[in-house]
Amino acid sequence: MEYPFLSKNKIIETLKQHNANIRKSLGQNFLIDPNYIKKIVSYIKENIPEKSSILEIGPGLGAITFPLMPYYNLTLIEIDPVFYKILKDYLNPIIIYNMDILDYIDQFSLNEFSYVIGNLPYYITTDIIIKTLKTIKKPSICIFLVQKEYAEKLLEENNSISIYVHNFSRVSKCTNVPPNAFFPVPRVESMLIKIEVFEKPQSNPDILEKILRMSFRSKRKKILNSWQKGIELIPVSLLKEKANTISFDFTKRAEEISKELYYKLANLL
Ligand code: SAM
After folding, report:
1. C-beta of 31 in contact with ligand 1 (< 6 A)
2. Residue 218 to residues 82, 208, 226, 229: CA-CA distances in angstroms?
3. Is there a contact between 201 and 168 (Cβ–Cβ < 8 Å)?
């Protein structure tokens, strides 16, 4: 059997049969270009050993799931009951939960999985990545398709989300995916990224998060001014005292300070 949903018409017709529509609010853009599907599947196969257990977030109609099924034990989490039913019917037997991934992680955690993949719904990309990094078994690998602009931010070194994510992992680019590889065609390009999660984070994630929140709340100001403005998630006097013991320059802006110094400061706290 071939993957049955490679055309726009087939997707529309199938949804019609289920009295359903594409739900933009759920970030539903389905991969329909067989070459890009192949490319994504090869990246996954190059990075994840055969027969491994993989969690897939948002399988939709199964564009990535279907070609991976012969090689892996897949667990799927799909929020949309229509896709849940379609997948259950044509991919049977398969482990699939009709749930919000964020609730799934809250209830079950991801600590049984060393591999997580997904063409992520864009409206909760950050929440998914943060919750995954916190709860996934370590070390591990995630392969995610995300908006290109977002991926580029993660690949940089000096913004709060990249500093947070790099605390847990190494992020690298696999390939770009153009809008016309999807139906409906999104307005922006996408990028497939690999997140290699370390055995241990470099510093305590909760403390680091507080430091980053305080440091990046007024990005154009000197970092000390940013700390002093707003709620003291950590007492500023304590932050100053610890920062004074490492070469942390309060006169710089948050983005001018290296991520390593943030990790050092979090460790001192
Ligand atoms: N994997 C499919 C593909 O590549 O063609 C679909 C990807 S589409 C970008 C995102 C999928 O995530 C949709 O099927 C959507 O219904 C599902 N989704 C959206 N929000 C979700 C959530 N909170 N939990 C689980 N799945 C979600």
Report:
1. yes
2. 43, 17, 5, 8
3. yes
CA of 21 to the centre of ligand 1 (A): 14
Task: Give the predicted TM-score (pTM) of the model.
Answer: 0.95
Each residue's pLDDT tens digit in the chain (269 positions)? Answer: 789 999 999 999 999 999 999 999 999 999 999 999 999 999 999 999 999 999 999 999 999 999 999 999 999 999 999 999 999 999 877 899 999 999 999 999 999 999 999 999 999 999 999 999 999 999 999 999 999 999 999 999 999 999 999 999 999 999 999 999 999 999 999 999 999 999 999 999 999 999 999 999 987 889 999 999 889 999 999 999 999 999 888 889 999 999 999 999 999 99
DSSP letters spanning 187-226: SS-EEEEEEEE-SS-SS-HHHHHHHHHHHSTTTTSBHHHH
In this structure, the dihedral spanned by the alpha carbons of residues 126, 131, 132 and 137, taken in order and rounded to 10 degrees, is 160
In this structure, the residue with its CA closest to atom 6 of ligand 1 is 60
Domains, in order of start, for the chain: 8-197 (3.40.50.150), 205-268 (1.10.8.100)
CA of 29 to the centre of ligand 1 (A): 8
Residue given tokens 């947070």 in the structure block: 164
Residue 234 in tokens: 């950590």
- Ligand 1 centroid – CA 197 distance (Å): 23
* Dist. CA 102 → ligand 1 center (Å): 12
In ligand 1, the atom with minimum distance to the C-alpha of 122 is 9
Query: Could you tell me if the CB of 63 is within 6 A of ligand 1?
Result: yes
- For ligand 1, atom 5, the nearest C-alpha belongs to 30
